[in-house]
Design a protein that fits this description.
By secondary structure, the protein is mainly alpha-helical. About 65% of the residues lie in helices and about 5% in strands. The protein has helices at about 1-25, 50-55, 65-75, 85-120, 125-140, 150-165, 170-180, 190-200, and strands at about 30, 40, 45-50, 80. The strands form 2 sheets. It has a two-stranded antiparallel sheet with strand order 1-2. A two-stranded antiparallel ribbon has the order 3-4. α4 runs antiparallel to α5 (about 125-140). The longest helix has about 35 residues, at about 85-120. The protein is elongated, with a radius of gyration of 31 Å. The N and C termini lie far apart (about 115 Å).
Length: about 200
């Protein structure tokens, strides 16, 4: 009787053992953190990404998926373990944000320079700078910095053109309002109103 019990226990143990082995081979789904559900068959599909460059450039740490970073901290290893797709997503997001920041910084520099020229009474210099800024925004529209317009330069151009009775005023208003309409950008009504005034006065 004891032999029968022993055999049953051994069989149950083998069943439990093989069940665990089979379960370990099942695809693992990581929790959604940054890039959505990431599925992989096993760790063999992961690559080792050195962690040092990410700590040297602190801004890049925020792009590491949370579960990857937690595992890195708990393992004590000197590298992150992730799929190639995850690394590609990290690099793409980082580069897009860098490009956005570069564009916004340039726009800010243009605006600040224009403001300084105005304060110094250098109106033509200010107009030229605001023109460059507006052209730069149009050329880089939708390239990572959002679907909008930083309105300082276009607004100052509109005001200075009118004040100086500038010969480029009607061309600027025509081109700028056409661009806004093409991109479905809402713009102040005063642009259209001033443009119509100029057109009617030239009839």
């Amino acid at each position: 009787m004891n032999y029968i019990v022993l055999i049953i226990i051994i069989i149950i143990g083998l069943i439990v053992f093989f069940y665990k082995k089979t379960k370990d081979k099942q695809p693992h789904t990581y929790p959604t953190d940054v890039f959505g559900d990431i599925k992989t068959e096993n760790k063999d599909n992961f690559i080792k990404v050195p962690a040092a460059p990410y700590f040297e450039n602190k801004g890049m740490l925020s792009y590491i998926p949370k579960h990857v970073f937690r595992e890195y901290l708990s393992s004590g290893k000197k590298y992150f373990e992730m799929t190639e797709e995850m690394l590609y997503d990290i690099e793409q997001k980082y580069q897009a944000d860098q490009e956005r920041d570069r564009i916004l910084n340039n726009i800010t520099k243009f605006n600040n320079s224009g403001i300084q020229f105005e304060k110094l009474g250098m109106i033509e210099k200010a107009i030229s700078t605001y023109e460059k800024c507006t052209k730069y925004m149009i050329e880089n529209y939708g390239k990572g910095w959002g679907d909008g317009i930083a309105w300082h330069s276009p607004n100052r151009l509109r005001i200075l053109y009118k004040k100086e009775k500038h010969p480029r005023e009607i061309d600027f208003l025509t081109e700028f309002t056409n661009f806004c309409k093409l991109k479905n950008i809402e713009y102040p009504e005063i642009y259209e109103r001033r443009l119509n005034q100029l057109k009617n006065s030239n009839l």
